[in-house]
Amino acid sequence: MTGKFGELIYKRPDGAAVIREIHRQEERLRAAQSFEEVKSAFEEFHRVQEEFRSCCQIAEIRFTQDVRDAFYGEENEALGQMAPEVKEAEHSFYDALLSCRYREEIGREYGALLTEKLALEASGGGKSITGLVQEENRLTARFQKLIGSSLADFRGKKLPVEQLYPYKGDRDRSVREAAYRAEGMCFWGMREELEEIFDALVHNRDAQAKALGFDNFAQLGVVRMQRMGYGLEEIAHYREQVKKYWVPAVAAIKERQKKRLGLKDWKAYDNLLYFPDYNPVPKGDSRAMLEACRKMFHELSEETGAFFDTLMEHDMFDLDSREGKAPGGYCGSVDSVRLPFIFSNFNGTTMDIDVLIHESGHAFAAYEAYGSGACPELREASSETAETHSTAMELLTMPWHGLFFGKDSARYDQFLMERTLTYLPGGCAMDEFLTEVSLHPDMSAGERHGLWKSLRETYQPHFADYGDIPMYRDGQEWLFDTQIVMNPFYFVDYGMARNVSLQLFLLQRNNPRSAWEKNLRFLRAGGTKSFGSLVREIGLEVPYEGETVRHVIEPMLEWVLAHEKSL
Length: 567
Prior knowledge:
By secondary structure, this protein is mainly α. The chain is 65% helix and 4% strand. Among the domains are: 5-139; 232-281 and 379-567, Neurolysin, domain 3, CATH 1.10.1370.30.
């Protein structure tokens, strides 16, 4: 790539031609008389796949940059209908690869995990669900457009919901409450449509699961999330360990926060104010943050310095919040140029740095994977592995936080660690919620709200009391949570990733070089090994096994309490 992201040319792909070419390579594969012919067909398949995926990636990024853009809205919709048909052709090609008489040679050439991953993926898709996936894509696009175009009435202004975040941590309690109220009122008027979308998604996903021979979508979720070596039982064990050890530790942290703030009672809208006088804020605008990040990554390692220079050279960022922009942050990629793209919604709070460094962890992993020579199917790690890349980057860069926060860097470190620890149980709440909803797809909207409210009280009691704020009051705020609606079963992986990242952080205190080398070794494996085997290989404990949760939270609680005293 010689130019910048904005200069990339997009043209809608010819889906029928893509499918024909994939089937042509499948025929070559089935007729192959040598392994070299198999390799040739596989490489040509990857070329076709890359061209199509790159078009989808560019269109999706540009749609999220402005969900009001009619052109990319239409393109996103068209590609959402085209992609499942292309996926069906890909599944057919993979079936041919898995039944190929050169399967042993394939394993030696590309890695033993390839055929295992393809078999898992094959069981989670196919021709029988193409129409259902197309409908699912229509529903999620409708949800994304609804959320992305929403504006909240706050202090006489209409603000994108993302821009309410700074006010949620304001020193004035009435301002904090008002910010949450503005958000709740914004979504209150669309709650029936949000309920309708989610209900349709639940039944759609249940139908997909049953069409593929699963009892429910929770079982299909294990396959879709590429969980290798563990499943629903192990995740349930992990959640129970979080309830037993992590939730009480968070209660102790929240009690300290309450005393720090001088509050006699606790409301959920107090969570984002960590210090009575002010929360730390980054110094400078998005350009200044990028330059600080560049300096940090150059000092961290030669590899991270080269990576960040490349992203800046090609302007692979969109960081500032604005009207019409989709909420949240993510790391995307453009396969054709072998580069990741970082998307965020800067709002002048600590979240700007949280997201920038977090997504840079994903981006660095993608950058390394593109240069690894691994086949595309093994470049992408499963989500709990990928989230370790990003959460580890947040924690292992702590020595450089002064570049962003100056004299407030120690205060930011306290904030970051308290937030990391206190938000972890929320992923378990989401996972248990989605599991129960998948097991009982005919729940009413009221039953789902009641379930969420109950789980919120179990896992995050400090988020339980919002007073009379709409949506939050009755446990309905999950309706506008993009992770629950668009990425079911994903959020628990953040918690498992944080368990591994915190182990690296604890190691870094005594041996920074060893911690970075273990992290780099973990990251460079990409998707060539399962999450559990990678964690064991670098000498750490697997989060869903035994009492790993207790082994992590106990020393981290000690760190948080000791660090608070040093401020």
